[in-house]
Specification:
Largest sheet: 8 strands, mixed
Strand order of the largest sheet: 6-5-9-3-2-16-20-18
Low-confidence stretches: 1-21
Mean pLDDT: 92
Number of helices: 13
Helix content: 10-25%
Shape: globular
């Protein structure tokens, strides 16, 4: 889609005001009270973290083992939790996400009869807690705790003091792995063995923040995650014939890899083309393992992250390539997939897609922050965790490219910019779909260009019959509407904002400012809106309200064209109107009978006065046509009134 991004103001003096259309109220769109809450010491009015901004911290040491006969994980997690808040905490809240995978859970009971992608499919699992203890101020006790669905409250004998007090929580636990864990975790059968994709696999701290204190929304499936940052040290013990890959840096390659595999990895780090660590012909061979029986423990570390996940299988082909980051830094892109997926039209290009996306996003937005990233082929249709993503083993071509570039893009939103996915899906899915537009346009000379277009948004807004806006909790959005409300509408809006409203130069600077300000922090929607207003120099409150808080529609029209004193050489007065509650700046193409064509841009502030506007254009000949939005950049629901054409004689 061609986008017209140069806004040229060529109209003369505007002179005529008309009364509003009855279905357009400027005061609703240009609401002076919207986004008008004063900033404070924690969050400044300009959208930046305030001088006393704080957030708590959770550091994890985890060890677990996988029983492949029972498909069960048994583990122990030690959480060192730091209370940096100004509040004393009498209790702590943790997430037990596996508890959604029972037939009595809220997630199961709130899943429609017909099922959904993120529903629990009648699986009787859940976390079994074998022991719980806390160590505080040198004393270790067994605390009182209460489990409610996917949440656990630990009641402290002694409050956790504000501004830096620490506590250690130790939990021994186990759970059966759900074969279909809400399309986020699961088990896939292949001809060479099972693939395990393991996520939400340990008790995790809930976030305590300056907005509402403890954030304790239950895990129902569609809503994703809101997590504290910290350092992770974790070990996974599995049968010796399995290959494990996980978030972060492998600490003991000499114990779990062969010399050949380590040499191949070293070669891959400096290669722009994929290097095989395990080829299709080597899958399942004993030569790929440093020992042929028993168990091996894979030890990983990851710093300054909000989560970790892992995958394992004896069916993996493994290839890798180096990733070139800004300032001559390096990372590593790796893909793990079964022989069924190995064709050059499918997962044979997975590392190419991953490497490109990591380099593109690092150069355009913010450098990739982790030592490596893994792409796992399995049954999960697309899910992201820090440094590791799960994509479907049957994807190929543009489908595999876009699911790969989308899922790894989440390492920017929300893994680096730590937004609350449980409430605001658009802050990670929408932002990420937005940056995917540009990765698609730039990959391999435009090989997959054009798939992510504003046409999806236009079709959706034309046909959407519901009442929910994008600012709706994802768990209560109808499943048929989730893709548009969380992904495509926010992404389309940001593209319009960039290409039509403020222009790429100002938008890109403001967007990077937001990322820089909120990297490894917890932004709220208002922090994004205020940062964009501040850094672009525009009060875009009208846009944020109409696009994210409402489900208004856009319908702009050309109403009348009238020559001054019936003489085209004296100019023409053109009347346009805004018929629905959504507004946009107006780009108008004017063609004269002589062949002269010019474009006029009417600023959005015009609609702050009235729903109808007349402006003067210095014509030199008869007007042939007047067209609003000639490049079709806007989601106008009725294009039949966008063009005025001179009557034929």
């Amino acid at each position: 889609m061609k986008l017209y991004t140069t806004l040229v103001l060529v109209f003369c003096t505007t002179t005529i005001f008309c009364q509003d259309k009855p279905d357009y109220d400027p005061h609703q769109t240009f609401d002076p009270q919207f986004l008008n809450t004063p900033g404070n010491e924690y969050r400044s009015g300009n959208g930046a973290p305030g001088p006393m901004y704080w957030q708590n911290r959770a550091d994890y040491t985890i060890s677990c083992s996988l029983d492949t006969a029972k498909d069960e994980i048994t583990g122990t997690v030690n959480i060192t939790y730091t209370n940096n808040s100004p509040d004393k905490l009498n209790y702590l809240w943790l997430q037990l996400d596996q508890n959604t995978f029972t037939t009595k859970s809220r997630g199961h009971m709130s899943t429609p009869i017909g099922g959904s992608r993120f529903g629990n499919v009648a699986f009787e699992g859940g976390d079994s807690l074998h022991s719980v203890s806390v160590t505080e101020h040198g004393s270790t006790i067994t605390p009182q705790y209460v489990i409610t669905d996917t949440r656990m409250q630990i009641r402290l004998n002694e409050p956790l003091k504000p501004k830096g007090d620490k506590i250690t929580i130790k939990i021994a636990y186990s759970f059966k792995i759900p074969p279909d864990g809400s399309d986020r975790t699961g088990i896939t059968s292949t001809k060479n063995g099972k693939i395990y994709e393991i996520a939400q696999w340990y008790p995790r701290m809930e976030v305590y923040d300056d907005i509402q204190g403890w954030n304790t929304l239950p895990y129902l499936g569609a809503g994703e995650f809101y997590l504290e940052y910290g350092d992770f040290d974790y070990s996974v013990t599995v049968p010796a014939n399995l290959i494990v890959t996980g978030s972060g840096q492998l600490q003991n390659p000499g114990e779990v890899l062969t010399h050949k595999e380590m040499d191949s990895l070293d070669k891959a780090k400096n290669s722009d083309r994929r290097v095989f660590i395990i080829t299709a012909n080597e899958v399942g061979n004993t030569s790929t393992r440093p020992k042929n029986s028993g168990i091996l423990t894979w030890h990983y570390k990851m710093q300054q992250t909000r989560d970790v996940s892992w995958a394992c299988s004896k069916a993996f082909i493994w290839d890798a390539a180096g990733v070139n980051l800004p300032d001559n830094k390096k990372s590593l892109a790796m893909s793990f997939y079964p022989v069924e997926s190995a064709s050059d039209s499918a997962w044979g290009r997975a590392t190419e897609y991953l490497k490109f996306s990591m380099e593109f996003y690092s150069k355009t937005y913010y450098p990739f922050v982790y030592p490596c990233a893994s792409n796992i082929a399995g049954s999960v249709n697309g899910m992201e965790y820090p440094g590791i993503i799960f994509c479907n083993m049957h994807d190929k071509g543009d489908n595999l490219f876009f699911v790969t570039t989308h899922e790894i893009g989440h390492n920017w939103f929300p893994m680096t910019v730590g937004s609350d996915e449980r409430k605001y899906a658009w802050m990670d899915e929408g932002f990420n779909t937005f940056i995917n537009i540009y990765s698609g346009e730039n990959f391999n000379n435009g090989e997959y260009k054009g798939r992510q277009t504003i046409k999806r948004v236009i079709n959706f807004m034309n046909n959407y019959k519901g009442s929910k806006p994008s600012m709706t909790y994802p768990d209560v959005i109808d499943s048929k509407d989730l893709a548009m409300l969380a992904y495509y509408k926010p992404a389309g809006g940001l593209r319009i904002l960039r290409e039509v409203v403020v222009g790429p130069q100002r938008f890109d600077y403001a967007f990077r400012t937001y990322i820089d300000r909120w990297a490894f922090k917890h932004p709220q929607p208002e922090d994004f809106f205020r940062t964009m207003n501040d850094a672009t120099g525009e009060d875009l409150s009208w846009f944020w309200k109409e696009w994210f808080y409402e489900n208004w529609k856009l319908d702009q029209s050309v109403d009348n064209v009238q020559y001054v004193n019936a003489d085209p050489k004296q100019g023409v007065d053109i009347t346009i109107s805004n018929k629905q509650q959504m507004v946009m700046p107006v780009e108008i193409e004017i063609k004269e009978a002589s062949g002269k064509t010019e474009r006029v841009t009417i600023p959005v502030e015009t609609w702050e006065r009235s729903g109808t506007w007349t402006f003067h254009y210095n014509s030199t000949d008869m007007i042939q046509s007047v067209t609003i939005d000639p490049d079709h950049n806007l989601p106008d629901i009725d294009t039949s009134n966008n063009t005025w054409t001179a009557p034929t004689k």
